[in-house]
Amino acid sequence: MTVDALTDVSGLRVGHATRTGDGWLTGTTVVLAPEGGAVAAVDVRGGGPGTKETDALDPRNVVRTVEAVVLTGGSAYGLDAASGVMAWLEERGRGIRVGADPAHVVPVVPAACVFDLGRGGDFQARPDAATGRAAVEAAAASEPGAPVPQGCVGAGTGAVTGVVKGGVGSASTVLGSGITVAALVVANAAGATVDPETGVLYGELFEGRRVEYPAAEVHAAAQRRLAETAARSTPPPLNTTLAVVATDADLSKAQAQKLAGTAHDGIARAVRPVHLLNDGDTVFALATGDRALDAANPLALNEILAAGADMVTRAIVRAVRAAEPVDGPGGAWPSYGELYAGR
Question: What distances in angstroms separate CA 218 from CA 136, 196, 199, 245, 332, one per listed residue?
């Protein structure tokens, strides 16, 4: 049984730590790999990224697998959440062995952040090591293949896309070969996910199904509401879309890096404009290696690459649809669901 989320890749677990109220509107999301790790890679295309340990994922470097990936709010301050995940992994002897003693490990925990500072009202309310520990503990406590909470949770708690509330979304598919490809995103883009001319989500235009456009009067009302709230919410346009795209295929680091790169196409379909200087768009790729690629077909990876981009697009659509509106001391951001109710 599948849940149409990142956890359909066997062995991957997802945990969120969410902070709201009293000036808070932020959180952290952890993707926990199976014990022993997963092959990992990254591709960064935004002009203003906030990341940690991404150099270790270069195929030319020694690190091959990672035990966890951290997505967090709090801009660069929030990267401290990875320290809590590292400590949790070290306590369990999970990481790269650096000595004869099994306890002597260094967990490599790549991380990336989104800008959500001040969106809850308090600029200094941001994730720290304790938030990261809470998220990885939630991941570890989840059942294998559990559904992934989506919307305004974890790193998506304070996310915004354009002037509409963003959040966390996830999606998966099983290819004809039996290989699973899935994605989890934090949609927090400076660009828009909603077409201002029609009110349809850009990503829905690529989902391969008939698109139902909002009625003209509904769209007009939505645009009036957005204009009203935009005047009250003018934080710095420093945003980022983060994604983890994963598969159970047996990939090399170089193949995983190619998967991370092509998955950015999924962001470009759902967000306009994208990869700006004030975005930090970052995609991580994980491969658990449970299923071999067809060795007789040198182009066998292509199907996985195409599916990775498709899943990122679907996950962004789900993130925006699952988000709930926010109206607080840090600003007001309507949700797509309230603007286009019933669609």
Answer: 41, 12, 9, 35, 20
**Under a CB-based contact definition with an 8 Å cutoff, are residues 30 and 162 in contact?**
no
Angle 172-178-180 (CA atoms, 0-180°, nearest 5)? 25
Give the position of tokens 């709230």: 229
Buried b (16+ CB within 10 A) or exposed e, 236-249: eebbbbbbbbbbbb
pLDDT category at 246 given cuts 50, 70, 90 is very high
Q: Please report, for the chain, how many H helices and E strands are present, in that order.
A: 6, 17
SS (H, E, C) 279-301: ECCEEEEEEEEEECCCCCCCCCH
What does the mean pLDDT of the chain come to?
Answer: 95
Half-sphere exposure of 17 (CA within 13 A, CB side): 28
DSSP for 234-245 reads: -----B--EEEE
Q: Where are the alpha helices (DSSP H) in the chain?
A: 81-91, 129-141, 216-230, 253-270, 301-322, 336-339
CA distance 77 to 42: 21
Cα 176 to Cα 187: distance, rounded to the nearest angstrom: 29
Asked if 42 and 187 count as a contact pair (C-beta separation under 8 A), the reply is: no
Peptide bond connecting 273 to the previous residue in cis, omega within 30 degrees of 0? yes
Q: Tell me how far apart the alpha carbons of residues 170 and 339 are, in angstroms, rounded to a whole number.
A: 22
The pLDDT of residue 230 is 76
Indicate the SS3 state at residue 310. Answer: helix
Question: What's the pLDDT band for 221 if we cut at 50, 70, 90?
Answer: very high
CA angle 311, 264, 33 (to 5 degrees): 60
Residue 224's SS3 state is: helix
Residue 176 CB-density burial (10 A; 0-12 exposed, 13-18 middle, 19+ buried): exposed
Return d(Cα 21, Cα 24) in angstroms, integer: 5
Query: Nearest CA to 59 among 285, 242, 240?
Result: 285
